[in-house]
Write the structure tokens for this entry.
Amino acid sequence: MGSMGITERLARASAGRPWSVVGVWIAGFIVMVAAATQVGDALTTEFAVLNNPDSTVGADLLEERLRGEERALEFIIVRSEGLTVEDIAYQELVARIVDDVRALEGTVASAASYFDTNAPAMVSADGTASLIQVELEGEAKEGSDNVGPLVDYVRDLEPGGGFDVLVFGPGSANREVQEITERDLQTGESIGISIALIILLVVFGALVAALLPLLLAIFAIVGAIGVTALFGQWWSFSFFVVNIITMIGLAVGIDYALFIVQRYREEYAKGDDVVEAIAKAGATASRAVMFSGATVVIALLGLLLIPQNIYRSIAFGSIVVVMLAVLGALTLLPAVLKLLGPKINRLSIPGLRRQRSADDDSGFWASVARGVMGHPVLSLVLAVGVLVAVAIPATTIKAGFSGVESMPEDSEARQAFGVLMADFSAGLSAPAEVVIDRIGADQAAVDAGIETLLAQVEADEGFDFADVQTNDAGDLTLVSISLATAADGDAGYEAIRRLRADYVEPDFAGTGASVYVAGRTAEFVDMFDVISNYTPIVFAFVLGLSFLLLMVVFRSIVVPIKAILMNLLSVGATYGMLTLVFQEGIGADLLGFTQVEAIEAWLPLMLFAILFGLSMDYHVFLLSRIRERYNETGDNTASVAYGVRSTASVITGAALIMVAVFGGFALGDNASLQQMGFGLGFAILLDATIIRTIVVPASMTLLGSANWYLPSWLEWLPHLSIEGERDDATTALGRAA
């Protein structure tokens, strides 16, 4: 048997030694649970660009030759309803807070109030609000880990006397984002699992069978988190990775098990013994799952090409959980099915266990297929027209990052940021840093450039004030420039671009100095550039490999071209809907979503990769059934109708499960996860409805036998089969339940 027989061999081997296989998986599960408890040490809230951009070079120079390790900076805001900084009671409260904060050993390195510095930037115009600048122990990137005692102190403080005390900074804001994200993870899990179980009960009609897909998903998720924690000893992963692993693991783990368990039950119901039914499911459904997992992994590999930690974290976590889900479906599931045997149908729910033959053309989906194929041109024009219309708003999509404004209105960080916006410089906590390496430069020319830069910054409304600092060796100068706007907003990004292109570059041209613009906002701008530069590379990689894989499997150049076009339509429509709901706010309040100024910059490319992999699953399952029937009958029209109605039940169930899982995460408070969950759920819904029921059958009806066209000069391509080598094998999806 060729390599494509591996899934049947694995199924037979696992069924032959079920307790050994289950024992190995349980042992691995226990190890991964222990490892997963340490995953927090592997996570970071940093958005890091990994190709050494200007912002990174500048930050490294500052650490090496000026200030050493950069400390995390936080600001305590003291505000009074009636008193000002001139009043004794105000001064006494600030002094007490400074003393208390300095006493937080191991947390605070230094603290200075307006009364220590007399800096105008640290007091509001009316004198009722002032700042206490706090430097935390440890590196800046550890701010969210170290800021806890400071945040707790401010939360517990009861100043009385009409005073209000708040804390704001990157560390405290990121800490609150993590808390919200962890809460959203619990919400998403509970909602997704609950709805998925209900759908599985409807599909299977039995509680035992319905629980198996959830079992597989849990094993895959815990294993992937454990693997991430282990690799996290060498690399740091974005804190989003746990949510991604859970989201993708629930979706694919449940779906893959659904296909296999459904096929096993059908084979067993036809009279096969347990082992033979498992083997047939392994030769067909498991093979389809293996191919589907490969398509998802191929799409996700494209994200690894991008030198940015969010993409690589998402790709790593998603690839690991998909691979574990596939491995579990090919080994653990057959072993458990062998142990259960006929007990798979235990705890049946009356009225739900009914099966409809794939040859029965009297059902709902059969009627839909006949209607679409009876008017293929009209159906195709209307469906494509709807998708294009929904995609049009994507032309106005804006990329950005979820700032504090996108957090819940009652969040501490958002309230503190509102005070900063009203009374101080919003960019105070994350200034732009112009780093000037003076080695080998014309020193007089550099000094003149600095003077010119300071004058330009003072005249630019995008900046508030600047401070100049030179190291003891005199070979490195830092011009720290406070932004007049939020560090993570469009105005801030434009200010950095203007600073780089209009001021820094011409001011220091010909001086011999190397000049870099660093700081948090500059890091965001560098990330935008990386995404822009790598987007065409990722698209070419994913589309190219997907085309080759589909061409080999279906021995057609038409099928992969259509599949790619359909997926691009689906992705485009998803981008458009994201823009309408989140950026424009249409229906956002009704759905409980947060309207934002810009869609997460990393989201569109991430959605493309994940959606392309997941959407290809349904195309493959549907097209493989059509191809199988076409090979048997040579009747294209009848084969298309057969494929649509025979895959309808399980594809619909699988799609609804994915929508439920993704929708559960979209219902949290984190704006990034809202966008991600909504985008993934909406795209899957499109694929399972408009694409599968209208675009695919209408286009295949119009093209007829041309669907399977393969140029003669490509006949050397190997013959691969998704659904197994038996003449009587049906697809992985089996007959509609």
About this structure: DSSP finds 25 helices and twelve strands in the chain. The domain at 412-525 is CATH 3.30.70.1320 (Alpha-Beta Plaits). The mean pLDDT is 84.
